[in-house]
């Protein structure tokens, strides 16, 4: 099966959220996503994989295979886990270039930024930043190996 | 007389709530249920009016001014000092130093009295349940002076182990810095007993009254504490207002804190001399508007009646405690026999932040996290709690909304 583009997955998530009338339903869905995201193996739960700027603990690990970045993530907060599971779904399996260029407008479109308190929205931004930083590191490694 | 169904503990909360304009607002499409009062209380109309009246009627820099506005502003500012003096029953107005809040008050004492009295090998005692602001200034001082910070342990209910405290007290003890009421647990500490015991070994005592000033009757003369600090914004007053009480003899002999205008008698390049109390510790233009409005807040509390407020808050606490104890998975953190209306809890397999988000979605404001008391959280072996804290304007209906919201949230999350 062909890998969906980042924009296509974003549109898919936006569509899914458009079915919900209330934030109760949205949270129920996010929590469900959080519960479904596999637990990260303890050996990855290292300080270096922790996302700074979150009230809860968030770990993000990535792997680079055949030109693509694959993410795994976990959190002690199930809501945060749900949010990060959406980010993983959108970004995982794409090239560093595509990940760095991703606008991730779905976060705004599903109303997350306006709904979350500032401190939590910062946490979400910190997760995106860490995921993009990983992609950037692979991109830099690529270009140094190529030159 | 027609009585409203909301009359509880002798307080007409329906009437009272009309004095707090913010309580009319909606959050996430639902009526605001504000249960984060231990962080900051909402402000009644007289406080808001006092701020507006100052800026629209007599804004001026205080002291030394010869014109009418300066005189009016100075008089209003100094009236707050008299009100604070009454509020905590200090012996004289010179013992009241205005600060931005309790944190600045503790730092003032650490940097003045602390630097003067603490020497290498001396010991400062704090408790496990201190707020970071009553730990860090003493750590800084201990590091600078090679002094030692000692910690009074607590039991599982969140009460001080007084026998251990007595063992910590030695001839090396210079200071006991003690929270009156724990912000994270609600525990009321036996400060009067602690002060007497500390004095017996010649140690001074600072009482952090951040949480107690709003709930308890404060009598610094009866307590016989050497210092007492509190923040105005936790007593229905403006942010950036607060005070330090210090015994006159200590304040007179302590070195100055900040240098600048207002705190001087005469300035010469060779040597300057300091102003009399309380101005010696009030360098620069103070937070005039907020200090003026603090009087309105303290008057509001006094007029409403601390005893009636306390009775009302205790009823809410009892109701909330029994409601939450019935929810499976909820564990209350802090079960001291003597408590104010602070209810901290954890829920099995549920992160406090998730609870906070889902409660906020129902318009219910609680605090989640470590409450600036990480050593206390470490003692309980938890990263944080969810905390509901009640004020004079909260109602039984709001407690029920909390319990219902919590049950729904837990069903979703667990």
From TrEMBL, chain A:
InterPro entries: Fe-S_metab-assoc_dom (IPR003808)
Domain of life: Bacteria
Pfam families reported in the protein's UniProt record: SufE
Domain Fe-S metabolism associated: 15-133
Similarity section: Belongs to the SufE family.
Name of the protein in its database record: Fe-S metabolism protein SufE
From TrEMBL, chain B:
CDD domains cross-referenced by the UniProt entry: SufS_like (cd06453)
InterPro entries: Aminotrans_V_dom, Aminotrans_V_PyrdxlP_BS, Cys_dSase_SufS, Cysteine_dSase, PyrdxlP-dep_Trfase, PyrdxlP-dep_Trfase_major, PyrdxlP-dep_Trfase_small
PROSITE patterns in the record: AA_TRANSFER_CLASS_5 (PS00595)
Statement: the UniProt record of this protein carries the keyword Transferase: yes
Catalytic activity entry: (sulfur carrier)-H + L-cysteine = (sulfur carrier)-SH + L-alanine
Superkingdom as given in the UniProt entry: Bacteria
Cofactor(s) annotated in UniProt: pyridoxal 5'-phosphate
UniProt keyword terms in alphabetical order: Pyridoxal phosphate, Transferase
Start and end residues of each Aminotransferase class V domain: 33-402
Entry EC no(s): 2.8.1.7
Functional note: Catalyzes the removal of elemental sulfur and selenium atoms from L-cysteine, L-cystine, L-selenocysteine, and L-selenocystine to produce L-alanine.
Family, similarity comment: Belongs to the class-V pyridoxal-phosphate-dependent aminotransferase family. Csd subfamily.
Protein known as: Cysteine desulfurase
Organism taxonomic ancestry: Bacteria, Pseudomonadati, Bacteroidota, Chitinophagia, Chitinophagales
